[in-house]
Specification:
291 residues, Rossmann fold, alpha/beta, 36% helix, globular
Length: 291
């Protein structure tokens, strides 16, 4: 089966998910901003200043292999979100040095900085790598939920020699039958951000979101050719809601030469989540030992 046929088959499987299935909120980013509470197992947050960017992060420390955790929630991705769909710090901090960063300008976090209109994805990857550099971390593994999927692929592109293995969980991607679902789902984040940051204009927000979500028909940060040639092991955990297309997750799994796939669905019923977490732990442990 050639690549075009694979894409056709996978896309056909997603047609049933139409606008009628869309939840009222595409991401948590449309919800009113909640107090940015840190999961107890994460420990106390710290701050790192990088020029005009101020980043809030947590580092559980210890001698474990570094594991970068990226919360879901779209552009409201923040450390506080790493309790859903399970307590990431509670599950991983016993074995790994868990590190997480509030996304710059997330309304539910405390990281702030310029809105880099022309490089929305890379500006956030800059922040993630800057915190790791600040902590003296070279090699690391990564697990990212939702918007963390494109961030992981961008980390694999930007720092291929540093990422040992990665887990894109319930990743976002382009859904051709709902091409504006991610763009439209970011409007709540935009409204709240402009209330807090009146120097940021609606025109800047518009161009930022266009550059983020309207210039790709795949995973937004890399091409299919990149995924096809990526030699980093990845464990892909598909979802299938409007913002998390099953077809794109599975296309990545079919293209990436060292990809593995979790069971599907893995979040429902909830009794399946511990099984999925065990698979993640086995995957990370296997590749940590290789590293």
């Amino acid at each position: 089966m050639n690549d075009q046929t694979r894409r056709t088959v996978l896309a056909a499987g997603a047609v049933a998910v139409t606008a009628a299935t869309a939840a009222p909120q595409v991401f948590a980013q449309n919800a009113p901003a909640a107090p940015p509470t840190i999961p107890p197992a994460a420990g106390a947050p710290s701050f790192f200043q990088k020029g005009p960017v101020k980043l809030r992060y947590v580092d559980t420390g210890g001698s474990g292999f570094p594991l970068l955790l990226i919360s879901g929630g779209g552009l409201n991705s923040a450390i506080s979100g790493l309790r859903n769909p399970f307590d990431c710090f509670g599950e991983f901090k016993g074995e790994y040095r868990c590190i997480a960063v509030d996304l710059r300008n997330a309304n539910t976090g405390e990281s702030t900085g310029p809105l880099e209109v022309d490089r929305p994805w890379d500006s956030h990857t800059d922040d993630q790598l800057a915190v790791l550099d600040h902590l003296g971390v070279n090699k690391f593994m990564a697990m990212g939920f939702c918007i963390g999927g494109p961030f992981i692929w961008n980390l694999l592109k930007r720092a291929p020699d540093r990422v040992v293995a990665a887990v894109p969980a319930q990743p976002v991607g382009f859904r051709p039958e709902m091409p504006n679902v991610l763009y439209d789902g970011s409007k709540g984040w935009a409204t709240e951000l402009m209330k807090r940051r009146p120097e940021i204009t609606a025109a800047q927000i518009e161009q930022y979101l266009v550059n983020m979500y309207k210039k790709s028909d795949f995973v937004f940060t890399v091409t299919r050719d990149f995924v096809k040639n990526c030699q980093t092991p990845v464990l892909i955990m598909p979802d299938d809601i409007p913002a998390h297309p099953y077809a794109v997750a599975m296309e990545c799994a079919m293209l990436a030469p060292k990809a593995e796939v979790s069971m599907y669905p893995w979040k429902e019923p909830k009794e399946r989540i511990p099984i999925a977490v065990r698979q993640v732990k086995s995957f990370l442990k296997a590749h940590q030992s290789v590293a």
